[in-house]
């Protein structure tokens, strides 16, 4: 795994807020007060594109996992990480939380 000198930066500001605005709580999970956290791992390539998203750690609820993966799959481009002044592909892990209030 490459650890960049300069980490990738989300081009739209706060990635957690961006995901939160687009996340749709699965109806059945909401009705049943199911909550959880999904850890989605992906690669930000040299061009800043999100590639290879997958659930690294499941919430133990398939609907929550699928929704977290859906939203991460449509993330816009990032500013890629850099190592010694060169753009590099970087692995990123994003926690996505679901909670019923």
Explain what this protein looks like in three dimensions:
With 101 residues, the protein is of the alpha+beta class. The strands form three sheets. The protein has a three-stranded antiparallel β-sheet, covered by helices on one side. The chain has a two-stranded antiparallel ribbon with strand order 1-4. It is elongated. A hairpin with a 2-residue loop joins strand 5 and strand 6. The model has no long low-confidence stretch (mean pLDDT 96). The chain has three helices and seven strands.
Could you give the topology of this structure?
Elements: E1 9-10, H1 15-22, H2 27-31, E2 36-44, E3 50-57, H3 62-73, E4 78-79, E5 81-83, E6 86-88, E7 90-98
Antiparallel strand pairs: 1-4, 2-3, 2-7, 5-6
